[in-house]
Amino acid sequence: MKPNSTSGIPSHGPTVRCTFLEEGRVLMVAMNRPKYLNSMTDEMQNDLERVLDYAEEEPSIWVIVITGTIIPKTTKSFCGGQDLKDWFGQKDEDQRERLLKTPKGFGSISRRHSRKPMIAAVDGLCLGGGLELLLNCDLVIATEPSTFGFPEVSKGVFVAQGGIPRLVHHCGRTLASELLFLGRSINALTARDKFRIVNEVVPTTEDLMPAVHKMSKQIISNSPAAVQLTKLALVDTLRRGHRSFLREAELNKLGKLENETGSGIEQSTVSTILSDEFEDWFSGPDMQEGLKSFVEKRKPKWTDPVKKKLGSSKL
């Protein structure tokens, strides 16, 4: 059953705003400290964790959108990173302890293992931890005036919540070094065309939500079980690293790769087939419904995936 209001969402403070889109299939979660560039505090982090854990477990939610609240005629921001005043007020040992005790990363997103597609909708500044959490989203839509960067080194701070390896995955060592060592910001077009961390750029704020609706509708028109299984396979491939896959491609070119059972490609494929997500999809109704609707020339009627406890996925 699709939720038709936010009443089922866990209690949270004003630092987070939640809105259901597309008849409840999409949950949009907005970081809500616009006067402070939506910078992260412990309160916001805790609010985000509660809301996103709920979204992860709720079968009727198929897509999650992450965005930032903006105030007209002020500096726009997706997320300006960590609230340094909040962070600076803590003891050194508290800061290190917090890093170790946040397995889901910055904003409970940058290292989160979500089985559901996550879309980042960016309008304005996306800096530091804000960029770290964006890099763990599956799809990114940004307005043309938006800016992206890791200014940490200019503040004597380290990118510590998963942003470095994810950035390298996106654009390689050389470009990642440029963004990390120089501490400079880039615009949305550069983020898309050169660094490959943005999927779609729209001209203005007014164009952002229509683009989000369009992308969300395209995703939820597909089987949620198949989409989630596809994400499992995609993430598993990234986890095994691209080096083994490049090596296998070279061996294959030389005719020396003969279905090696220990290869990264083989391991990733077998891991996906043996996963609970594969079993849920294979034994579930969506595959038969998809084939039947194709033959009958009608739109398929997809079913909510099996409800899973948080952390049960192999993602």
UniProtKB/TrEMBL annotation:
Pfam families: ECH_1 (PF00378). Gene3D superfamilies: 2-enoyl-CoA Hydratase, Chain A, domain 1 (3.90.226.10), Lyase 2-enoyl-coa Hydratase, Chain A, domain 2 (1.10.12.10). Keywords: Lyase. GO terms for molecular function: lyase activity. The keyword Lyase applies. CDD domains: crotonase-like (cd06558). One of its GO terms (cellular component) is mitochondrion. InterPro entries: ClpP/crotonase-like_dom_sf (IPR029045), Enoyl-CoA_hyd/isom_CS (IPR018376), Enoyl-CoA_hydra/iso (IPR001753), Enoyl-CoA_hydra_C (IPR014748). One of its GO terms (biological process) is fatty acid beta-oxidation. PANTHER family: ENOYL-COA HYDRATASE (AFU_ORTHOLOGUE AFUA_2G10650), ENOYL-COA HYDRATASE-RELATED. Belongs to the enoyl-CoA hydratase/isomerase family. This is Enoyl-CoA hydratase.
